[in-house]
Write a structure and sequence with these properties.
- The protein is of the alpha+beta class and 169 residues long.
- The chain has 2 domains: 39 residues; 118 residues, Beta-Lactamase (2-Layer Sandwich).
- The chain is 49% helix and 28% strand.
- The protein has 5 helices and 6 strands.
- It has a 6-stranded antiparallel β-sheet with strand order 3-2-1-6-5-4, with helices on both faces.
- Strand 5 and strand 6 form a beta hairpin.
- The longest helix is centred in the N-terminal third of the chain and has 38 residues.
């Protein structure tokens, strides 16, 4: 009996040690993900379509102008941040991706908490139950505002050059 108790205590000790190691690895992995998201001006999201819960994480300060690194809300909260002129296109794209079981991809404007506008490139994917009903959506959005500004400047420069070229003798 004493041998069995010793083996049981030793097994519990090993299991506790293994769990501590796994928890430490999870913390390191989360730190790496947070650093990558912040470096890339990116945010991630996970939506539970059954409960309606949504979690955003990453560089929320830069992209959305929020004060924390994690934001929990409802699935519909995303629309509050999408530019009014882009909302229908974003919703249509999400609906099409959900119904066709294809990845979601779009570029659209986000209105930050301070009312400034940023451009994001978003990609997501749905998870489905065994019966084919959507259960969850996960995705990432990267701030592409600087790229959009550079494209606008390039287009303006090209138009200016074209105008000068066509008007010169």
């Amino acid at each position: 009996m004493l041998f069995l108790q010793t083996v049981l205590v030793f097994s519990l000790f090993l299991e506790q040690k293994r769990r501590r190691y796994i928890n430490a690895e999870l913390l390191r992995s989360n730190d790496r993900l947070r650093l990558a998201l912040e470096t890339g001006n990116s945010i991630g999201w996970e939506s539970d379509l059954v409960s309606g819960a949504k979690v955003w994480f990453g560089d929320l300060r830069t992209v959305l102008g929020l004060r924390s690194d994690v934001y929990a809300g409802r699935v519909g909260d995303l629309l509050r941040h999408v530019h009014e002129e882009d909302q229908k296109r974003v919703l249509d794209g999400i609906t099409q991706a959900r119904d066709s079981h294809t990845p979601y991809s779009a570029e659209f404007r986000i209105v930050r908490a301070d009312q400034s506008t940023r451009w994001v490139s978003a990609r997501g994917r749905f998870e489905y139950s065994e019966t084919g009903k959507p259960r969850r959506m996960r995705g990432m959005a990267v701030d592409i505002s600087e790229r959009k500004r550079a494209d606008d400047l390039r287009k303006a420069s090209e138009q200016k050059f074209s105008k000068v070229f066509h008007e010169s003798p």
